[in-house]
Structure to design on (243 residues):
């Protein structure tokens, strides 16, 4: 029986470990919530309508068209319910302009968030949409790794993050012969002596090229007959198999 299980269920040690892990994470959450409350407090001190700002932050996670439709419906319904709201009421006395510094900081945050979400939801690091070496490229890549780290924290220590490079396709050639693509025939149809075919490489190693249709019955890919107790062949210097 597993050390983590008893006839009555999980062992006491496993239960105790779960409680410790849960309390540890609750402590982290409590600390983060405290930091969030402090941000809201400072916003109120600066005269910000924090409820409206928080609704805006949440709306940024939705589809823009859905947000616009919801706002139109809200204003429509307010007027139906004898709470009239006009265009002048909504847009009088303010302009959406911000400084270049604020715009750059907002754009950079958007890049970081995009990289984080890509890493957290299984996107490839090579999907970085920004020019290599640019500030946005570096920040997107940095936050992609943070998204991967978030997956590891959420799912536990047994989870392997996605590779930091795009996975290669299935290898179709024998390692060491990547430069060989096809049999380059000479004018008379003969194969040049300095070209080594895949078939020759495979035969030298005692097998047949992958996909060969003329494999003899009872032989495996190594060229030896199947059967219990049969010794593996030895290759003499002259290339002759010796049993």
């Amino acid at each position: 029986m597993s050390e983590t299980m008893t006839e009555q269920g999980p062992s006491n040690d496993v239960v105790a470990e779960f409680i410790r892990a849960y309390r540890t994470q609750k402590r982290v959450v409590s600390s983060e919530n405290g930091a969030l409350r402090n941000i809201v407090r400072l916003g109120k001190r600066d005269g910000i309508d924090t409820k409206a700002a928080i609704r805006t932050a949440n709306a940024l996670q939705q589809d823009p068209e859905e947000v616009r439709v919801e706002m139109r419906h809200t204003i429509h319904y307010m007027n139906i319910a004898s709470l009239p709201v006009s265009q002048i009421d909504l847009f009088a006395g303010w302009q959406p302009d911000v400084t270049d510094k604020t715009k750059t900081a907002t754009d950079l945050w958007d890049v970081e968030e995009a990289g984080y979400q890509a890493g957290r939801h299984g996107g490839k690091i090579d999907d970085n949409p920004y020019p290599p070496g640019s500030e946005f490229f570096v920040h997107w890549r940095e936050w992609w790794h943070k998204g991967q780290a978030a997956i590891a924290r959420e799912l536990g220590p047994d989870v392997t993050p996605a590779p930091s490079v795009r996975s290669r396709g299935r290898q179709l050639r024998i390692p060491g012969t990547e430069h060989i693509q096809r049999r380059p025939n000479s004018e008379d149809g003969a194969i040049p002596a300095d070209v080594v075919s895949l078939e020759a490489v495979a035969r030298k190693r005692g097998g047949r090229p992958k996909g060969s249709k003329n494999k003899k019955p009872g032989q495996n890919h190594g060229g030896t007959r199947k059967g219990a107790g049969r010794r593996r062949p030895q290759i003499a210097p002259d290339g002759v198999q010796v049993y």
Summary: Confidence is low (pLDDT under 50) at residues 164-202. The first strand starts at residue 5 and ends at 6. The two ends are 47 Å apart (CA to CA). Residues 62-94 form one domain.
